[in-house]
Each structure stands twice: as C-alpha cells, then as structure tokens.
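REVIEWER CHECKLIST
Item 1: Sequence provided? yes
Item 2: Single chain? yes
Item 3: Sequence as submitted:
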Amino acid sequence: MTITARNLVRHELVGMSVHVVSSSDPGLVCRRGTVIDESKETIRLDTGTQEITLPKRVCVLSMTLPSGEVVNVDGRVLRGRPEERVKRSPRRKL
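Item 4: Structure as written out by the authors:
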C-alpha cells in the first residue's frame, strides 16, 4: 500500500524525513532528521550529527512522504505503540 496523507498514521514511520514545525518546547522547533526508532510516546531522529528523542504529544511534525509530498501531522495523532497504531481505525483526520 502506498503511503499517502490519508493513511500516513497507519504506516511505519522509520526511515521518513521529519521536520519539527512547532512544539511547546522551543528547543525542539526546527529540528530535522530521519526517523530511526519509534515508541509509544517518542520518536528518535538521526540529525546527522546526533540522535535526539522527540515527545510526540508536544510536537507538530512535517513529514516528507516517499512521493515527495510534505504533510504536517500533530504528534498526538501518532501516539501509541506503532504496532497497535497500525491496527486501529483512524479517528482523526490529518
């Protein structure tokens, strides 16, 4: 299945390019990198020089899809274990 803006939440995020558009923690804004790991509450990014951990609940992320399309996603929509998030039906629209 192709990753689109409508089904992004139901896919694996590892390997995707991410940019933090906004956050309640000003130190996280403008961070960018590639997703290397994901847990229930956090996303780990490789920025090229370091690895950082982002809490999902406080960030709005701009994600680049394999097609090149850029989509903004509220991190609260991504909360939950990745394997459980893939199984559940979407309740919120992006």
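Item 5: Key structural point noted by reviewer: The radius of gyration is 12 Å.
Item 6: Recommendation: ____
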